[in-house]
């Protein structure tokens, strides 16, 4: 399967980077082809809502990292969203990528799977509720199938995450992909 992983943290060695690494490790061991897009280290301008894409066959008015990545998105069979929780939602870095889906909606809707990996400081069971709702609404809109969620609550830093079973769970989610 062609797997595209989009990460949203500016921490190269943070909590969600570890979740992404582990999921990718499992997926590659299971024979899947993985492409990783670290949004915080790419040039992704915010959507201007100019609708240039509507009259240019999905081509965006911005010429930046999304120009190549949008082709990758179309090809992907599974898209994995990996984000730290920022004010109860995704980070701005990954949200900017998602907003740019707008230009490709017609090409990417339907017949894809998605996965959500997230980490938060807060340990409460409601900590990720808004994030989950946003993710589920996005999948419903795009007609994508959920392939799993891993919500690592109570993990402010990598050292804490490493003491939990979340990294192992991320690995197993990758390994179990079909
Ligand atoms: C700008 C910002 C906003 C945050 N908002 C929340 C939040 O709403 N709830 C929460 O539990 N943790 C919040 N956190 C904590 C991060 O989600 C948490 O530390 C996470 O493990 C960081 O992941 P990373 O190391 O991959 O960047 C926030 C951190 C930052 C920097």
Automatic annotation (TrEMBL):
Keywords linked to the UniProt accession: Flavoprotein, FMN
Domain of life: Bacteria
Matching InterPro entries: Flavoprotein-like_sf, FMN_Rdtase-like_dom, ISF_SsuE-like
Pfam family, one: FMN_red
Coiled-coil segments on the chain, per record: none
UniProt key word Flavoprotein: yes
GO MF annotation list: oxidoreductase activity
Keyword Flavoprotein appears in the UniProt entry: yes
All copies of domain NADPH-dependent FMN reductase-like, residue ranges: 1-123
Full protein name: Flavodoxin family protein
């Amino acid at each position: 399967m062609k797997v595209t992983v989009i990460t949203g943290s500016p921490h190269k060695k943070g909590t969600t980077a570890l979740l992404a690494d582990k999921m990718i490790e499992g997926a590659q061991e299971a024979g899947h082809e993985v492409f990783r897009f670290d949004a915080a280290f790419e040039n992704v301008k915010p959507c201007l809502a100019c609708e240039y894409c509507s009259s240019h066959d999905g081509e965006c008015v911005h010429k930046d990292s999304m120009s190549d990545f949008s082709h990758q998105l179309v090809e992907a069979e599974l898209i994995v969203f990996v984000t730290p929780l920022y004010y109860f939602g995704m980070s701005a870095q990954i949200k900017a990528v998602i907003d740019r889906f707008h230009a490709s909606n017609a090409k990417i809707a339907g017949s894809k799977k998605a996965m959500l990996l997230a980490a938060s400081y807060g340990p409460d069971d409601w900590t990720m509720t808004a994030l989950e709702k946003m993710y589920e609404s996005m999948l419903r809109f795009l007609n994508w199938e959920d392939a799993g969620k891993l919500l690592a609550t109570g993990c402010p830093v990598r050292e804490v995450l490493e003491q939990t079973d979340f990294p192992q769970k991320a690995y197993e989610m990758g390994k179990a992909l079909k």
